[in-house]
Design a protein that fits this description.
This protein is α+β, with helices and mostly antiparallel strands. Helices cover 27% and strands 33% of the residues. About 6% of the residues have low confidence.
């Protein structure tokens, strides 16, 4: 339905934006990617990666970044059977790519897939494949590689030399070639350009020796081939290519070290450069570049490592392009990885870890803060719930002056650094140059959830046509304010406790260490607050220095090490926090110095000194996290200390209090019906006395029930009208003993009450008939005149009528009590549903699945959360409060009948 623009909210309507951010747990459906042997990735649009991988069954799959879906990713199957090898080739000039795969001993090659014309959500349906086969059916295809103009695939056969086929992609014509030196094993090959010729780079094995060779395709005029062997001082395990600015490929060959082979300036040979390395044998290498900037990723037994030629100079706070850093550990658990291909993409990759099942993680370095971001990927077919730590912010729009609608209005979100977020449970990625649009509904509000693994987070910006100016949301503001209030000094830090009562900092931590850590935290918090202010204040220079032995974190070391000359590894703050910090076991010295519009951070680990200036709230929050880690307070501990936690036990306590209150109120309502009945009986008995006092001499219906059976100590037998027992001895009995458990109990009680009512009514009728009969005899005998007889007759009929009214009311009230009893049985009757009942009993720690219990749980969840937001604690934190609340249920329906 289209809304008339006149009825839409606009800038003239003084729109107000309210938001509240909190650090808290959230739950998301997740099914991690089961990536197996290989993974490759391509950026098909702004911050929109397409990932190809072989699953555990060797089927080729792809997942597409798809904003607005439950997980933010869409799964696409690209093979019917097992795939032996695959590769993608991106053509930057044509803005297109092709896929080649080996399936059913055939090479399958896709047509050109244009980035701008392709509907990637339907890639699996629309992709066109051509197939190729070797000359002999006995040849087994082992591997395929694809370039922009050619494709090659390698074959092997029993007793035969290995060979490869060169395929012209335009015509699909293929020519077989044998390997040099009669090699029988191809380890790796790639199409490329070298010495301004087109050819193939081959890593092959002859006996136990491995060789890396470039071999050009035959010259069309002279049928001449160009060959270059790339030798170094060690055996090569793998290699990767990076296209240089002159069109020739730069070769990065890896054994224990990484060797760079780049064409020399005289264009006849190559220059060899060995990059720094210290991590052992390399099993896989990938390279990414953007202009002259290069990044090299290597996979070792010790995990995924990273090195770059973008060397950070702290003296000038600028970068030196061409000087390589030492290798940095990025993911110690990685078993497989892929660098993201695409225009302008450098430090983005995906890694696979099998330490905890199989997890696929997206890693990317923010260009603004240099901080590394991690996000574990999931697909849309969710099969489990995963608890994650996150910042959650609720955003609400309102207008005090206009009665117009926000429906169908678009709100745009960006951030100061790249960040995965969820908006109303739909996944998105935002960044400085990547905005997402959210359409508002009738309720002009939405919730943003930002998963984090430390207390830092991006600044989010909101724009809309109906807003006069951009709205900035600092996700960390509340948490950093809370931290500042709780940790004002070392004494506060030493006394700080988590919600479970355990100390935040280990007992015995040196008091001077705590004083210096708290001082540094306060200094950084003040800077962060000033950076986020609309009008930053000029701050006085401050400097805090302290040292900690990371192997023995509760010991403060003397001195700060400022007199030692800097051995600068040239890495950014983000590289340091992601790679170096977690492995530090030496003495760590901190210097925190206030500078203009930021903080200068100097950290010395062993003989290396790292020096940066940080100017964003996110960087400062990330560094505060590291100060806490230095005193063995890690994110999980800090999260419990600062976050708004959904305490499930508190929610269950609230649920149980609501349930018991309801049952007490129902019991009191039934007993109150007894009071009402007694009140009506007394009023009617006064009137009956005026007409037939003898009717009031009949045994009370309340006391005419059947006598209790011997040895029947069942408290449920006569609970409906045992008001006296309730008031005196019954009120202290357990709630369960004062409740019926079956409908048969309720029916039995109703019958027991109805029988004496009818019996009393019958006796009253017989007594009145007897009196009237005796009076009529007196009339016949002449002892009573007829006028007096008529008066007596009317009087007795009136008395009996009042008795009849009294009995009907008693019967109706008894029936009402029975109905309330039946309702209470229904509310508390356990539902036995296979599996569901067991799960409910498990999550509620033993409670049965009943209608009342479920309803109280639904009410308890928001009630507990909202109460905790307002009061800072759960509503029933102690047993006394709960007991008093439940007892108030006994007077919920109490009437004043005096």
């Amino acid at each position: 339905m289209n809304i008339d623009p006149r009825h839409r909210i606009s800038k003239n309507d003084q729109v107000k934006v309210d938001f509240y951010s909190e650090l808290m747990n959230n739950y998301f459906p997740e099914s991690t990617i089961q990536a197996g042997k290989d993974i490759q990735s391509l950026m098909i649009g702004t911050d929109r990666p397409l990932i190809f991988y072989l699953d555990m069954n060797d089927h080729l799959q792809a997942i597409l970044r798809s904003e607005g879906t439950d997980s933010g990713w869409l799964k696409l199957p690209l093979s019917n059977g097992a795939v032996k090898s695959f590769e993608i080739e991106f053509n930057p000039e044509e803005k297109s790519f092709q896929i080649a795969k080996v399936e059913e001993n055939k090479v399958w090659v896709s047509g050109q897939i244009k980035l701008k014309r392709t509907i990637f959500e339907k890639l699996d349906e629309n992709i066109h494949w051509d197939t190729l086969q070797p000359d002999s059916p006995s040849e087994q295809i082992d591997k395929v590689s694809i370039g922009t103009d050619h494709l090659i695939y390698a074959t092997s056969g029993k007793g035969k030399d290995a060979q490869y086929y060169l395929v012209e992609l335009a015509t699909l014509e293929q020519i077989p070639y044998t390997l040099p030196e009669q090699a029988k094993t191809i380890l790796h090959f790639e199409l490329g350009n070298f010495l301004f010729t087109n050819g193939v780079f081959l890593l092959y094995k002859v006996g136990q020796e491995k060789s890396l060779l470039y071999q050009s395709f035959p010259d069309p005029d002279y049928n001449k081939k160009t060959q270059r062997r790339m030798d170094c001082d060690e055996s090569i395990n793998c290699f990767a290519l990076l296209e240089g600015q002159d069109g020739n490929h730069i070769v990065y060959a890896a054994g224990k070290n990484v060797h760079e082979f780049e064409m020399s300036s005289d264009e006849s040979e190559f220059e060899l450069t060995t990059l720094p390395s210290n991590a052992g044998d390399i099993h896989k290498i990938r390279v990414a570049g953007n202009g002259e900037e290069r990044s090299v990723w290597t996979l070792h037994d010790s995990g995924l490592h990273y090195r770059t030629n973008k060397f950070y100079d702290p003296q000038t706070t600028s970068y030196l392009i061409g000087k390589w850093t030492q290798p940095l550990i990025m993911d110690a658990n990685a078993n497989q990885f892929s660098c993201l291909k695409g225009d302008g993409v450098r430090n983005q990759l995906f890694s696979v870890s099998t330490k905890h099942g199989s997890e696929l993680t997206h890693l990317w370095q923010d260009g603004v803060t240099t901080l590394w971001n991690r996000h574990k990927l999931s697909v849309t077919t969710a099969d489990s719930l995963k608890e994650i730590e996150s910042y959650s912010v609720h955003v609400r729009f309102s207008s005090p002056t206009a009665i117009k609608t926000f429906a169908q209005q678009k709100v745009e979100l960006t951030s100061d650094s790249h960040q995965y977020i969820y908006i109303n449970s739909q996944g998105y990625q935002i960044g400085p140059n990547h905005k997402v649009s959210v359409e508002l509904g009738l309720a002009p509000e939405f919730t943003i959830i930002c998963p984090v693994d430390d207390i830092s987070a991006s600044q989010i910006y909101i724009n809309a046509d109906f807003l006069e100016k951009e709205v900035s949301i600092n996700l960390t503001e509340k948490v950093l304010d809370r931290l500042g209030e709780k940790v004002k000094n070392g004494k506060d830090l030493g006394k700080a406790e988590r919600p479970n009562g355990k100390p935040l900092v280990a007992a015995g931590t040196d008091t001077k260490t705590l004083d210096k850590a708290a001082e540094a935290v306060q200094q950084m918090l003040n800077t962060a607050k000033n950076l986020g202010a609309k009008r930053p204040k000029a701050t006085a220079p401050m400097r805090t220095e302290f040292s900690i032995n990371m192997g023995q974190r509760n010991v403060l070391m003397a001195g700060s090490g400022t007199g030692i000359s800097i051995i600068q590894p040239g890495i950014t703050l983000g590289d340091f926090l992601n790679s170096v910090w977690h492995t530090a076991q030496d003495v760590v010295s901190f210097i925190i110095e206030t500078v203009e519009n930021g903080i200068r951070v100097v950290i010395k680990i062993g003989k290396e000194i790292f020096d940066w200036v940080v100017r964003t709230v996110r960087e400062i929050a990330g560094y505060i996290q590291k100060i806490f880690e230095a005193i063995a307070v890690f994110f999980k501990d800090l999260f419990e200390f600062l976050a708004f936690l959904f305490d499930w036990d508190a929610i269950l306590a609230t649920k149980n209090a609501f349930r018991d209150f309801t049952n007490e109120a129902i019991i009191s309502l039934k007993s109150e019906i007894g009071n009402i009945r007694s009140f009506i009986d007394k009023a009617l008995e006064k009137e009956i006395d005026k007409f037939s006092p003898e009717l009031n001499q009949l045994p009370s219906a309340i006391n005419m029930g059947e006598p209790p059976k011997e040895n029947s100590a069942d408290p449920r037998a006569n609970w409906l009208n045992s008001k006296k027992d309730f008031v005196s001895g019954g009120e202290d009995k357990p709630l369960k003993e004062r409740m019926p458990s079956e409908l048969s109990d309720v029916l039995e009680d109703f019958v027991n009450q109805a029988k004496p009512i009818f019996a009393q009514l019958g006796e009253g009728f017989l007594s009145q008939v007897s009196i009237i009969g005796d009076a009529f005899k007196e009339v016949v005998q002449g002892n009573m005149d007829f006028t007096d007889f008529l008066k007596l007759l009317l009087q007795k009929f009136a008395g009996f009528g009042l008795l009849l009214v009294k009995s009907i009311i008693d019967l109706l009230l008894s029936a009402l009590e029975a109905l309330i009893g039946a309702a209470q049985v229904g509310l508390n009757k356990a539902w036995h549903i296979p599996l569901i009942s067991d799960i409910y009993r498990e999550i509620t720690k033993g409670d049965e699945l009943t209608f009342l219990d479920v309803m109280c749980l639904f009410i308890a969840i928001p009630t507990t959360v909202l109460y905790k937001i307002g009061e800072g604690e759960a509503p029933f934190g102690n047993a006394k409060t709960k007991e008093e609340f439940v007892k108030r249920g006994r007077t919920a329906f109490q009437l004043n009948l005096n």
